């Protein structure tokens, strides 16, 4: 505890010596150049609920519509930027703080950011919301019962938990605090990936955050476009 307080005091002293540098190109100019707004879609839920799957499909869909987008996946972040963090409550909080700050930078760059993280604590998700401008944080509860997640067990983690090989696992010996008032609640045990994707897209369109051509309301079409664009980009690089 003393080390924690000491570190906090050091950071406060360091911050008091810093001055924010304003750049010539701001978020609004980048959005204007990109032809669309920027915001973060924050996917939260238990392991195995379908966050990464939904995030991947949503990214492909938005990319197919010509929207600059990027998916920040929890496991990917922990294999790079957050590789020094464990799964204690404090490390989980720092994991979310870093992901939130990175998402904020990407939103400032004019990008639509999709974050797929368990992010179990309400206060940490609220912290990320607060560092964004109004309307830039869209919390999506990827809602799936624990027993269904355990049956799916796509990474074999639940099996390891039951064998006692993993500690501090969300839903077992570490809590998950359900979102209090999320923008969207997608029950992934009741809808398909495409239906869940369409729920997000419909919400974004209704909010005026994205614009969809009249002939592109079918989810499959933008996904096909995205697939062809990715294939073309790979061929160009070959």
Key traits:
238 residues; alpha/beta; 5-stranded parallel β-sheet; 10 helices; 5 strands; 11% strand
Strand content: 5-15%
Helix content: 40-55%
* Mean pLDDT across every amino acid position: 87
Rg calculated over all Cα atoms:
19 Å
**Could you give the count of β-strands?**
5
Q: What is the rounded distance between the termini? A: 54 Å
Judging from the principal axes of the Cα atoms, what is the shape?
globular
Explain the overall architecture.
It is a single chain. Helix content is 49%, strand content 11%. With 238 residues, the chain is an alpha/beta fold. Strands 2-3-1-4-5 form a five-stranded parallel beta sheet, with helices on both faces. The protein has ten helices and five strands, in the order H-H-E-H-E-H-H-E-H-E-H-H-E-H-H. It starts with a helix and ends with a helix.
Question: What is the element layout, followed by pairings?
Answer:
Layout: H1 2-16, H2 27-34, E1 40-44, H3 51-64, E2 69-73, H4 74-78, H5 89-108, E3 112-116, H6 122-131, E4 137-143, H7 146-152, H8 157-162, E5 184-187, H9 193-206, H10 220-237
Parallel strand pairs: 1-3, 1-4, 2-3, 4-5
Helix pairs in contact: 3-9, 3-10, 5-6
Short description:
With 238 residues, the chain is of the alpha/beta class.
